[in-house]
Structure formats: C-alpha cells, structure tokens
C-alpha cells in the first residue's frame, strides 16, 4: 500500500487569493527517498505541511481533492497519532525549538515524553540521537542560546528521536557548513537504509543528486517535473523552471556542446569521472 | 583606504576566545569571500570590522580610524553589516518603513532618501514586497530586505553574513548581480559563505578560516587548490575542481569551460 496518495489536490491558505498548490496528483511509496526542489514560493513547504497533515489540521483554508495517508483520509486521522507516524523537521530551526525547555537534553526528549515513553527509554534514545547528531557537548545548554547551525542540529535530533516510519524534512542544512551538511545527509542515508520513507526539501542539488530516489519539481504550486532522480536532474529544461541542476550535469551538457559528448549526462562527480574515463578509453 | 585587522584577538565576556591573532587587510572596492566551518571565527571576525565586537588585543583600523576610539553607530557609516539571521535586524512593520528608518532618523533629505530606497529595492529585487510586513514574507526574501536597508545607509564596506542560506537559483543570481553592481560603485564586499559554488563564481579572493585564525588568504585558484587548507578548514572544493582533481587534470581548474577545454 502507498504511504501517501495525493489525488488532484488543490489548497489555498486562509485570506489568500491564489492556491499554494494546484492539482497535485502523486503517490509516495514506502521506503523511498523523495527530493522536492524548485524555486522559492513554488509550494515546497506547503507540500510538506500537507504530507504531515498540518494541512488541514493546523492550517485552515480550502483543501480540495484527496490526501490518503496509509489508506485513511487525512481528515479522519487523529493528529497525535499522525505525529507518531510522520516526523517533520521545520525549515526554520528558530521556529521549531520549543522555547519552553531549559536544556538541549529536555528539548530533544520532549516529543518522546509527550508520547508517554518511560524515563529510561527517553534517556537512552536522547543520548543515542545526540551522539548521532554530534551534539552531546550541547546537552546541558539552553536551546535558545545556540548558533543557527547548532539549533538546526537540535531541531533535527528532536525529530529523529521519535523514530517515525516517515520523515518530512524541510531544508535541514540551510544554516550548516559543508561538513555539517554532509553529516545530515549521512544520517538521512542511514534512515533510508532502515527503509523509512523520506521526503526532503533541499536547494543543495549536488547532494540531492547523490542520495534521492525520485525528484519532484514544483513551480507556481504545480508539479512541473517528476520521476527517477537521474532522468529529472540530467534534463536541462529544469533551468527554465528556475530549478538548479547539478554541476556534474552542467559539465555533461557542456561536453556535448563542445562536440565531446559523454555516453550519458552525469549527475554526480563519481558518474562524471567514470564517463570521462570511459570516453578516453 | 582599507579595513585592517592587526594581530586581532577577541574573547567573549565568558572568557571564550573566538578569534586569535588575525591579520587581514581588505582594500576599498575589493570583493572577498570568507569560508570555513561553523565555529571557525568568521562571524566574530567580521563583527570586529564595524565595532560590533571590539578587539581584546590588537587593532582594527577602518580607513585609518581605530574602532576602539569610536562607537559602533559611528563605524556603521563606513562598514555595513547584514546579520546572519534577518530577524535579528528587522523591526519595522513594513518593508518601506524598514528601509526608510535610518534616513528618517538622520533627517536625510527626502529626495535623497527616495533615490537610495529606489536603488536598494532595484538591486535586491524586492519591489513586489515593498508594502508587506517583513515578517509575512519568506525567509530568503527577508534576507534581501536586510541587505536593502544596509544599501540605503550607503557604507563604503559591506559585510554579508551567509546571504546564500535558503536561496534558490533566482536568489543566487540576484545576490551575484547586486554584489557586482555595488562593486562598480566602488564598494567593498566581504561575504561569509558555506556555498563554495557561490564563492568561486562571485569572488576572486577567498580567505579560509579555521580554529580562530586565517589559514589561507589568496586567489580562488590558490585557496581552492590548496588541499591541506581544504582539509584543515573542513570546506570542500567546488564541484568542478573536485572533478578535475579526481581526473588528475592539472592547472588548478575551477570552471566548467576550462575543464571541458582540457579534456
């Protein structure tokens, strides 16, 4: 069974004139890793809100079409149960951090506490997750006094600790340096190996190219491209939708334009290297 | 005329030293990118340039003026700093009010104010949001609002702290455009960024920081092809440089066309 099915979904936020999402039809399969890309204002975060059920449970407005989560219409889902099924890492860590906990440790454990886990279990999971996210040094600090990058790691940790089967992650690396970004992608890769369903919004296209199974490109609230990662990201037409394509693909097209075509358009450095070596023979 | 950091160290009140004996000189009209991992001392360093931070030891001179002798408000006429988090900077209820705040405070001539606001809006591409509440517009656009308000104040030196966070292709192009335009007007632009593609495409001089110090200050070719520096400052080579390196192509290649020509 599909994890989430969207059938001709159109959604408009309250007090706005035009819909943020228009006629979206898409099926999210369990265990797959989806990358959502496209220009700002194109509907990426709104799609996240929809997949996590915040639309319609938190955001009012007008929702048309069907959103089916694990076979049940989103409108019939209990919000607490849904939060135990689908974890959501917000775009802005400054918004996600609760502001009511005095230490990072409590912040990371808050979700588990609310779900009624035993103290022992909460402590164990929080310790494990903090180690994974490399924030063990921060556990006694005030979450409000952290740097942007540190807050982003804490926000991510507090969702990972919930161990949900599906994760919706909205730009988890916007405040992070290249190493921190790489760490986050490695963790997401581990989650994928655990067969979790992952939906990721991210501008860092070279990393999307390396890790995602399928890509959805949004523009003006509509899906303009979707399909397997390689097929989508090697397509130069993506640039017209104001979406970035990987440097490796730009290189591949440039080789073709210069009369030195590679056997295929690469989307990662590894692919580019292999294709160049093959061409040289 | 230049910003000069002379053996500058800075410790926070709790005793934590964030910058250690940094020497750095930025000429007027120059474009410089500062790269390095979180916690390397980048933000602390640039905050020393306009007196937001005062050195614990050493001196910071801006066009010969020692920041220790003046207030931060005075220095900000020379050096404009755009905060990493736009919400630390914005406080007015509309974009227009935000942009007009400083000129009105200094009782600037209305005609001059309008000219500056118009120019700032054009450079940042925020026309459509001019009457919006800054907190109702998306984070990446909010960043452009903070850049615009510094452009209005018309300093000689601009500091952008992580302007690329969350920007899409359009936002990246807009940033590149406004940096070029400001430089044409004779402004210096100092940008902290984690985005190596942005750094290589827009800056010819790249400063790498690691553990509280400047470990490399050179051309983009020098910095991005110094593999020890790449390792030590925990940054990455731009993708094309990394590919050229993996392929064993020599000549410190940074750009797609160069690499294509060499294959």
Walkthrough of the structure:
Chain A contains twelve helices and ten strands. Chain A is of the alpha/beta class. Chain A is globular, with a radius of gyration of 20 Å. Chain B has 263 residues and is of the alpha/beta class. Chain B has two domains: 2-78 and 155-236, 3-Layer(aba) Sandwich (Rossmann fold), CATH 3.40.50; 87-154, no CATH class. Chain B has helices at 42-48, 72-75, 95-105, 110-124, 139-153, 169-184, 196-202, 220-224, 227-232, 239-247, 256-262; strands spanning 2-11, 17-27, 31-35, 57-62, 65-66, 79-82, 157-161, 188-192, 205-210, 213-219. Chain B has a six-stranded mixed beta sheet with strand order 6-7-8-3-9-10, with helices on both faces. Chain B starts with a strand and ends with a helix. The mean pLDDT of chain B is 93. Chain A binds chain B through residues 38-41, 91-92, 94, 147-150, 171, 174-181, 203, 206, 239, 242-244, 246-248, 250-251, 254-255, 258, 260, 269, 272-273, 276-277, and chain B through 36-39, 84-85, 87, 138-141, 162, 165-171, 194, 196-197, 234-236, 238-240, 242-243, 246-247, 256-257, 259-261, 263.
């Amino acid at each position: 069974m599909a994890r989430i099915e969207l059938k001709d979904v159109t959604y408009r936020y309250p007090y706005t004139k035009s819909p943020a999402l228009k006629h979206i039809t898409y099926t999210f399969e369990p265990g797959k890793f989806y990358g959502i890309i496209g220009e700002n204002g194109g509907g990426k975060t709104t799609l996240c809100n929809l997949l996590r059920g915040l639309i319609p449970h938190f955001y009012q407005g007008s929702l048309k079409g069907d959103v089916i989560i694990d076979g049940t219409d989103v409108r019939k889902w209990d919000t607490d149960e849904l939060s135990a099924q689908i974890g959501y890492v917000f775009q802005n860590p400054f918004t996600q951090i609760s502001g009511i906990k005095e230490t990072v440790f409590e912040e990371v454990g808050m979700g588990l506490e609310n779900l009624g886990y035993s103290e022992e279990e909460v402590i164990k999971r929080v310790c494990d997750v903090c180690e994974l996210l490399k924030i063990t040094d921060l556990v006694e600090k005030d979450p409000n006094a952290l740097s942007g990058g540190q807050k982003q790691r804490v926000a991510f940790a507090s969702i990972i600790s919930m161990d949900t089967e599906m994760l919706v992650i909205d730009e988890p690396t916007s405040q992070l340096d290249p190493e921190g970004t790489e760490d986050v992608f490695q963790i997401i890769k581990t989650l994928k190996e655990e067969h979790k369903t992952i939906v990721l919004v991210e501008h860092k296209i070279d990393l999307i190219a390396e890790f995602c199974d399928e890509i959805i490109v949004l523009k003006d609230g509509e899906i303009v491209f979707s399909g397997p990662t390689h097929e989508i990201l090697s397509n130069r037409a993506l640039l017209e939708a104001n979406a970035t394509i990987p440097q490796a693909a730009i290189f591949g097209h440039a080789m073709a334009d210069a009369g030195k075509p590679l056997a295929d358009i690469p989307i990662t450095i590894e692919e580019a290297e292999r294709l160049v070596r093959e061409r040289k023979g | 005329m230049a910003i000069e950091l002379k053996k500058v160290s800075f410790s926070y009140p709790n005793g934590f030293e964030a910058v250690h004996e940094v020497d750095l000189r930025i000429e007027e009209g120059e474009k410089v990118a500062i790269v390095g991992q979180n916690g390397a001392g980048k933000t602390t360093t640039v905050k020393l340039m306009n007196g937001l931070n005062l050195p614990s030891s050493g001196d910071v001179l801006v066009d010969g003026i020692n920041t220790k002798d003046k207030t931060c408000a005075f220095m900000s006429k020379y050096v404009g700093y755009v905060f990493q988090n736009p919400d630390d900077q914005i406080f007015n209820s509309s974009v227009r009010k935000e942009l007009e705040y400083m000129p009105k405070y200094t009782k600037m001539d209305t005609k001059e104010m309008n000219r500056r606001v118009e120019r700032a809006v054009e450079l940042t591409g925020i026309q459509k949001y001019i009457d919006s509440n800054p907190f109702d517009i998306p984070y990446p656009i909010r960043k452009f609002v903070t850049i615009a308000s510094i452009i209005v104040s018309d300093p000689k030196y601009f500091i952008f702290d992580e302007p690329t966070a969350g920007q899409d292709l359009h936002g990246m192009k807009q940033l590149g455009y406004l940096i070029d335009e400001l430089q044409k007007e004779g402004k210096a632009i100092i940008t902290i960024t984690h985005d190596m593609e942005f750094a290589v495409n827009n800056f010819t001089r790249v400063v790498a920081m690691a553990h509280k110090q400047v470990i490399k200050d050179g051309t983009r070719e020098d910095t991005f092809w110094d593999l020890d520096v790449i390792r030590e400052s925990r940054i990455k080579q731009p993708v094309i440089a990394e590919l050229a390196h993996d392929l064993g192509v020599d000549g410190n290649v940074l750009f797609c066309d160069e690499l294509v020509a060499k294959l």
